[in-house]
Amino acid sequence: MALLECFECGKKVSTEATACPKCGAPPPKSRKGESITPAQSASMTYKQRRAFQKAGGKILLSKAQKFSFIVIGFFMFFGLVKCNATNDVTSESVASADQVQKALQQLDNAMKDPRKIRLLECEGINPWKTKPNGWTKPTKNECAELNKILESETK
Ligand SMILES: [Zn+2]
Q1: 41 CA to centre of ligand 1 in angstroms
Q2: Quick check: is 74 in a domain?
Q3: pLDDT tens across 19-55, in order?
Q4: pLDDT in tens, 115-142
Q5: How many domains in the chain?
Q6: Does 90 map to a domain?
Q7: From the CA of 57, how far away is ligand 1's center (Å)?
Q8: Ligand 1 center–CA 26 separation, angstroms
Q9: pTM, whole model, 2 decimals?
Q10: Residue 38, in any domain of the structure
Q11: Residue numbers of the domain that contains 29
Q12: How far apart are CA 32 and CA 95, in angstroms?
């Protein structure tokens, strides 16, 4: 004999009773191993769903629910990762500000060297707002040559 919640009113009723003493509904029975689809559960009241689950029944998740659980889990995981990283945030942001400064400096230097501008063009980047008069697309040979020269200079 087990006490389970009445499917209709939520009162605890023996599975061996003939009816719920409070509301007269049929006695609850164990729902172990039973499952219902989201569509089926949608036609049940909150109390009925709760009683069904308390009696061991499973309500399957819809695809949308599964998806939202995955999304929520994903954000909770990254929230935790971020929380653990908060100690490093100050030093990290200082370092990245430094890196940005360095990168800007490098870009600035590169823009003073016409060969480096040309190399940017070789990589398909257009550094010009308006292209200078007589501008031509860099050829493959020119790019290879430039690459060689600049590489040997950085060594
Ligand atoms: Zn009842």
Answers
A1: 19
A2: no
A3: 999 999 998 888 899 999 988 888 888 888 888 998 8
A4: 888 888 888 888 788 888 888 888 999 9
A5: 2
A6: no
A7: 18
A8: 8
A9: 0.41
A10: yes
A11: 3-59
A12: 58
